[in-house]
């Protein structure tokens, strides 16, 4: 594996435990000078050091894999375990491919995603036999929202140039926390000649509308003060940094106009969040508040969802916050937003895990729920979940309710207020979850909805059990190895 990032991760592990180089070196049985060389990447991290790190701090080899490598390994593994294309490639070969040819691995994962999308579209058309060929949008195979999601995913949900541009704007206009909306509107009017009009008669579901020719920004009167400031900031992104937005979108090489425009909107929204919650100030406040989302939301006059989303972007080199995973799901289990600042892989096959506490929050609206969960690879995570609901704009209009999940590895959780009273090291007490039934190899999960796509079933007509799908642990692949999924190296 590449060693350029291993020293930085070793230093980060030391800092997370609040240790000096001397104390950290002593705990590992190393000299301070040798540890200093490891942290500067002038010496490699040997297997002996890895074993000691595992014994003392509970980290495994994946700790030193880059987050992008870990996610890509999971994506390629998922693709290869599709029964239609599976070739029994050993996990070690997948790791070697990702590390030696990352662009090729990414292309393979993308092609598999297109294959799955085309299969889903074909299934939908088969169900509706009256659909006309000319009614089919071939660009739908690309799934614009998935392209944009992967664009942010590959960048660990952090866009440095855009984040710094937003932070610079807050400095130049000398924004105070209490006047965020006012200062932004003054900037829009005085610098760009844009008139802001608040309207109660915008079409249902339309929050704002900007006309470049008329220099007129219409805002829905149903928006809160913080939401109005966010929309103003998002349009400032186009007016002040349109060239930067175009450059960033060009890097994505999106396959359709829909994906291109969706990426532009996503980047503008990223800029808006970075203006309302400027990086260093927000990070300092988050650390001071121990990442208490509700307290941060009140302090910055932002929604719970927007605050969680911003927390998942704090990955500036040399000044990073906790690497969070962020998700938004509905009652039916649809995941409409998912961003990860870590190697956590959200599967795209067969939904997510029903044992995940993000779904329990619907039974207790507005209540913060916590869960220590263990993934099949053995890693422990702390998940914090809560529902959010948008108010209707008129009688008879349904409310929108989502569950927001914010998670991090247990080794970071002690820095949050949500770790209070929890044993973050007790693996037996942790809820055993997976990335989704079709990819989860847990042999006897009572909540399993589908059999895993990479394992044979053990069927006995004269036996019943709690789990409807018993896995054949004796089956082997064409290489003669057990067909179970091994934890990622």
Keywords summarizing the entry:
489 residues, alpha+beta, three-stranded mixed beta sheet, 11 strands, disordered C terminus
Describe this protein's structure:
By secondary structure, the chain is an alpha+beta fold. It has 16 helices and eleven strands. It has helices spanning 6-16, 21-28, 32-39, 47-57, 67-80, 91-100, 102-127, 144-154, 160-172, 180-192, 225-252, 257-276, 279-288, 293-300, 304-311, 410-413; strands spanning 195-199, 208-211, 216-220, 315-316, 319-320, 325-329, 335-340, 369-374, 380-390, 400-409, 431-432. The protein has a six-stranded mixed sheet.
What is the helix content? 40-55%
Structural class computed from helices and strand pairing: alpha+beta
H/E topology pattern: HHHHHHHHHHEEEHHHHHEEEEEEEHE
Give the low-confidence spans. Answer: 127-141, 475-489
The major β-sheet equals: 6 strands, mixed
**Strand proportion:** 5-15%
Strand order of the largest sheet: 7-6-10-9-8-11
* Shape, per Cα inertia axes: globular
Number of helical segments with 4 or more residues: 16
- β-strand number: 11
Q: Which whole number gives the mean pLDDT?
A: 80
CA-based gyration radius: 24 Å
Separation of the first and last Cα atoms: 11 Å
Helix and strand layout, with pairings?
Elements: H1 6-16, H2 21-28, H3 32-39, H4 47-57, H5 67-80, H6 91-100, H7 102-127, H8 144-154, H9 160-172, H10 180-192, E1 195-199, E2 208-211, E3 216-220, H11 225-252, H12 257-276, H13 279-288, H14 293-300, H15 304-311, E4 315-316, E5 319-320, E6 325-329, E7 335-340, E8 369-374, E9 380-390, E10 400-409, H16 410-413, E11 431-432
Parallel strand pairs: 1-3, 8-11
Antiparallel strand pairs: 2-3, 4-5, 6-7, 6-10, 8-9, 9-10
Helix pairs in contact: 2-3, 5-6, 5-7, 6-7, 8-12, 9-11, 9-12, 10-11, 11-12, 14-15
